[in-house]
From TrEMBL:
<dbReference type="GO" id="GO:0006974">
    <property type="term" value="P:DNA damage response"/>
</dbReference>
<dbReference type="InterPro" id="IPR007497">
    <property type="entry name" value="SIMPL/DUF541"/>
</dbReference>
<dbReference type="InterPro" id="IPR052022">
    <property type="entry name" value="26kDa_periplasmic_antigen"/>
</dbReference>
<dbReference type="Pfam" id="PF04402">
    <property type="entry name" value="SIMPL"/>
</dbReference>
<dbReference type="InterPro" id="IPR016907">
    <property type="entry name" value="UCP029033"/>
</dbReference>
<protein>
    <recommendedName>
        <fullName>SIMPL domain-containing protein</fullName>
    </recommendedName>
</protein>
Length: 244
């Protein structure tokens, strides 16, 4: 009989403890679901303070030395021209010379492609400029026909624009996006008759840099526009708060 009483008591205690654990689990589950998740946006417009530009020039000749000498003469003309436009010598970088053998090709009577006789050497070199004088290099890239008019086969590329203080811009946008997200969360809680509790989680998106008022697509890994001097950067911050 005593054994039966003890068994009943132990069973009753287990039942009470089980109810307690179940109640805590339900309470904790409801507490974890009682949260607000919001996304804030931070944006900033700025103008690039660094520009890069490059162009290539070439020379053709049956004799390799003659082709190289001709290319060297063109290189000097280009270098002197850039210096005359106020470009610093330290900003002018010439690449190594690329040498390609050329062959005169044709299709035979059966329509088969035939690589014919040697037709000379083609030598190509690239000149690059990196400068913080954005306006000056922009004007240079637009008026490069002055080099072509001197008898040089020169091909100019489009300038690329960068910003050297991007780290500061990113910090400002993060602060702005965080403030925006918190204000949104506070407004949601206020409208529902609640108040914000502790911040549970914060997730930062990738920075997206595009041309202002453009239709450029954002990418998962981040977009970095280099074709526009004027830029607009944006970043998102997702915050998750407990609600009291």
């Amino acid at each position: 009989m005593n054994k039966n009483i003890i068994a009943v008591a132990v069973g009753a205690l287990g039942f009470v403890l089980g109810l307690g654990f179940l109640g805590n689990a339900i309470k904790n589950r409801n507490k974890s679901e009682n949260t607000i998740s919001v996304t804030g946006l931070g944006t900033k417009q700025f103008i690039s303070d660094l520009i890069t530009w490059s162009g290539s020039f070439s020379k053709n000749n049956f004799d390799l030395k003659s082709a190289y000498d001709g290319l060297a003469q063109d290189r000097k003309v280009i270098n002197d021209y850039l210096l005359s436009k106020g470009i610093k010598q330290s900003e002018i970088v010439f690449s190594s010379v690329d040498i390609q053998k050329q062959f005169r090709s044709y299709n035979d009577t059966n329509g088969n492609y035939v690589q014919g006789e040697f037709s000379g050497y083609n030598l190509t070199q690239t000149v690059s400029i990196e400068s913080k004088e954005v306006g000056k290099i922009e004007n240079l890239s637009r008026n490069i026909t002055e080099i072509i008019n001197r008898g040089i086969e020169f091909t100019s590329s489009s300038p690329s624009y960068f910003y050297t203080k991007l780290a500061t811009v990113k910090q400002e946008m993060i602060a702005s996006a965080t403030k925006d997200a918190k204000e949104r969360a506070e407004k949601i809680a206020e409208n529902s008759g609640s108040s914000l509790g502790n911040l549970k989680k914060a997730t930062m998106g990738v920075i997206q840099i595009t041309a202002p008022n453009s239709n450029e697509d954002y990418s998962y890994g981040g977009t970095f526009n280099t074709s526009s001097k004027e830029k607009e950067a944006s970043i998102t911050i997702k915050l998750e708060y407990e609600v009291n």
